[in-house]
What we know:
By secondary structure, the chain is an alpha+beta fold. 14% of the residues lie in helices and 30% in strands.
Amino acid sequence: MTARARHTGTARELSETCYFCARGVLEERRVTVDFRWGEKLTIIHNVPATVCNECGERYYDASVVEQMEALAVSGPTQAEVRVPVATLPA
């Protein structure tokens, strides 16, 4: 998963100030998550998250993370996309 999942409680229990940058204000939003499970990448739309308006750090409720894991492991997919893969030279 590219965004951090913090299991510090529900989004409403988080303080209004971002834990990560200590400057931003947390806002409830719906986001798109690039969720990685092993070698598999699943793009999940419409994920509820609490997002810092300053640094963009995302916080997810534990139940939301569990739902994303279930979708990534064996959930139904609506579409597939081709993604270019590149490697930086050593």
